[in-house]
Amino acid sequence: MDLPAQGVSSIAPFDCDTDDFALRSKWEKWKRSLEIYFEAASITDAAKKKALLLHNGGSSLQEIYLK
């Protein structure tokens, strides 16, 4: 995601390939980073947030979402 005018860079994709015990913790931390990203980039539209969640989440997260 390229937002040079706002000075906000994208976040790393979510790593879905982890054991079940650590997955929830990793998800909560990643989601918190995404919410901070939305705030910094002044993104409030729900459809855009969803699209950016899936885009920034990466292909593994997209596969889970689309199941």
UniProtKB/TrEMBL annotation:
Domain of life, per the record?
Answer: Eukaryota
- Protein name (record): Uncharacterized protein
Phylogenetic lineage: Eukaryota, Metazoa, Ecdysozoa, Arthropoda, Hexapoda
